[in-house]
Write a structure and sequence with these properties.
The chain has about 600 residues and is an alpha+beta fold. The chain has 2 domains: about 450 residues, no CATH class; about 130 residues, Heat Shock Protein 90 (2-Layer Sandwich), CATH 3.30.565. It has 23 helices and 5 strands. It has a 5-stranded antiparallel beta sheet with strand order 1-2-3-5-4, with helices on one face. α1 packs across α2, α10 packs parallel to α17 and α13 runs antiparallel to α16. The longest helix has about 35 residues. The protein is elongated and about 80 Å long. It starts with 10 loop residues before the first helix and ends in an 8-residue tail after the last strand. About 55% of the residues are buried.
Length: about 600
């Protein structure tokens, strides 16, 4: 089957994507918001050099991001594949592995921050003027490293548990605590850099305590369990997640080099301008980075399901809806570049204001192509193209910007460094295109070819339908039976498949659709296997586990819930999951006898 670059988008996937996206964006943005608050408080209540201190610590934040990214990347892909294959215990084990490993890494980095703050300040590039203040900031922030790293792992699991509201609540609490304590510690009590760092550390703990409470309730399906951890999974987690860490490490190294280039060619004003830009940039790119994480997660699930249609629809959503958002954001950043500079430097006559405004205006043009790079590299990570993802991490994270900056900064000063941003993005896009061309051995002509999908991926005989009412349910049951007949499945098995579908999908339409005022769709996927038929029924209604209902009513009146009882009697296996905000019911029916005349 051929697919053009533009393809219809699955409405259920669109709803799922934009329900999960705000959580991903918030996770990315919360760190930037804290940094912006710290920068503004530092500029207004301490001095402008403290903005440089916060900016220098940005490379340490990159180290923390690298530690978290290597786990989040690997855990996201492995848990997504397990989820797609219906293996809930393995999903719990992988998530638990990420939490325990994050705790160990957090403890080591916390100890290093207390034991050797001077060495860390020197590595971060502090000069004699900033070294003392940076050491204080390193020790103050250290109190919040463990909740930051472990909280990231719990936050990723919350998305699978359909607990978006709790995640949003945690972010609101964290930002509120950080703002209140920044004002109290710095503006009121005059605690300076120590108060600035300590307020962020306490805010990290506030966020962690809010989100972790869910895992003490009975509703949590992914409760951490050391018993379920398979430590052999650690190596695959590291291998899959390594490109994330490599990219962040390269960005940290790039930051150190760029800081030195700016100090050498343009002085401290240029460094301060870049520091203020870095504080806001995470917020600007929150949608693109959140989309990348979501692409990686959902692609992993679809790969586990061998769901070609889901992958293609996902990429179409990103290239249409999300790209439109990024184009609008690019225009807004360009037009608001003076206002963004004024957040930190209210005096428009200063050189640092001029350079900051110039940087924001130039960077605005990078925003749409950055989405392309992030989405494609995250998809390739989920698809297992590890060599390419590592290569593009090196190029995009370091060389594509550092080399142009080294060439242009001696002649153009800070402007040369600013221009290195769009040049670097262009180089990354060219490398990504070359990767697809080389792997395809020609210019890709379809979306399938751009995604480098194997020819046999998801090509088994299958039927995919969307149901909106009871009439659809009845018609689909008949189509399922006809589909089985056409492909040589025993008549009895096809009849059983139609009955199971009509009962379970009918329950969803009758009860789930009426539970709220939202519009819902039931997606039915029928897959033919050598040993029988697999029905996968997916919906976005309230959670309902027919397996639990069947077990609770097994000893009651045999007439009660006769439909559900019939399904469990006919099926070889019934498996239910409620993750990623979706009810997913998988029914396996054995094809014990051949169809007449087969």
């Amino acid at each position: 089957m051929k697919h053009g670059i533009l393809r219809g988008k699955d409405p259920m996937l669109v709803n799922l994507f934009f329900r999960l996206l705000p959580v991903q964006v918030a996770i990315v943005a919360m760190g930037s918001i804290n940094t912006i608050v710290d920068g503004v408080i530092a500029a207004r209540f301490i001095d402008l050099t403290t903005v440089g201190v916060v900016g220098l610590y940005f490379s340490m934040l990159r180290v923390l991001e690298a530690a978290g990214a290597i786990l989040l990347g690997g855990v996201s892909v492995l848990s997504g594949r397990s989820l797609g294959a219906g293996k809930i215990d393995r999903t719990r084990g992988v998530c638990s592995l990420g939490i325990v490993t994050a705790l160990a890494i957090g403890a080591l980095l916390t100890a290093a921050s207390f034991v050797a703050p001077g060495a860390i300040a020197d590595i971060l590039g502090a000069n004699a003027e900033l070294r003392g203040a940076l050491m204080v900031y390193v020790k103050g922030y250290a109190f919040g490293i463990i909740p930051q790293l472990v909280g990231q792992q719990f936050a990723a699991s919350l998305q699978l548990e359909r607990q978006e509201k709790l995640g949003h609540m945690g972010i609101v609490v964290m930002i509120t605590v950080n703002v209140v304590l920044d004002i109290l510690f710095v503006a009121v009590w005059g605690m300076g850099v120590w108060g600035l760092a300590l307020s962020t550390a306490i805010a990290n703990w506030a966020y962690f305590l809010v989100i972790v409470q869910f895992y003490f309730t009975k509703r949590a399906q992914l409760k951490p369990s050391v018993r379920l951890i398979d430590w052999r999974e650690l190596l695959p987690v590291v291998r899959i997640g390594f490109p994330n860490a490599l990219l962040v490490a390269c960005l940290a190294a790039r930051g150190l080099v760029i800081n030195r280039i700016l100090l050498a060619c343009s002085g401290s004003d240029a460094l301060t301008a870049l520091s203020s830009f870095n504080m806001v940039n995470g917020l600007i790119l929150a949608v693109a980075l959140g989309t990348g994480s979501l692409v990686r997660m959902l692609s992993s699930v679809f790969i586990g399901e061998e769901n070609r249609e889901g992958l293609l629809s996902l990429i179409c959503i990103v290239s249409s809806y999300v790209m439109a958002m990024m184009l609008g954001l690019a225009v807004a950043v360009f037009l608001l570049s003076p206002a963004l500079a004024m957040i930190f430097f209210p005096d428009m006559g200063t050189e640092v204001f001029r350079m900051t405004r110039q940087l924001f205006a130039i960077y605005a043009g990078c925003i749409p192509p950055i989405l392309v790079c992030i989405a494609y590299s995250n998809y390739c990570q989920a698809a297992g193209h590890h060599l390419f993802v590592n290569l593009v991490s090196l190029i995009d994270g370091f060389f594509s910007m550092v080399i142009p900056a080294l060439l242009l900064a001696p002649r153009l000063g800070a402007l040369g460094v600013w221009l290195a941003f769009p040049i670097g993005i262009g180089i990354t896009i060219v490398v990504s295109i070359l990767h697809a061309v080389v792997r395809s051995r020609r210019w890709p002509r379809t979306l399938d070819e751009w995604l480098l999908l194997p020819a046999d991926f998801g090509t088994g005989e299958r039927l995919v339908l969307n149901l909106r009412d009871m009439r659809d349910v009845t018609q689909t049951a008949e189509r399922v039976q006809a589909f089985c007949d056409e492909h040589g499945i025993a008549r009895r098995t096809g009849t059983h498949a139609g009955l199971c579908l009509e009962e379970m999908a009918g329950n969803i339409v009758r009860h789930g659709f009426r539970a709220d005022r939202k519009k819902h769709i039931v997606e039915v996927r029928v897959v033919l296997r050598e040993d029988g038929v697999v029905l996968r029924i997916k919906d976005d209604c309230i959670a309902f586990n027919p397996q639990e209902w069947y077990e609770m009513t097994a000893g009651e009146d045999p007439i009660a819930n006769v439909g559900i009882r019939l399904v469990f009697r006919l099926a070889e296996e019934v498996n239910y999951q409620n993750l990623l905000g979706m009810n997913v019911l998988t029914i396996r029916l054995a094809d014990a006898s051949p169809a007449p005349g087969a």
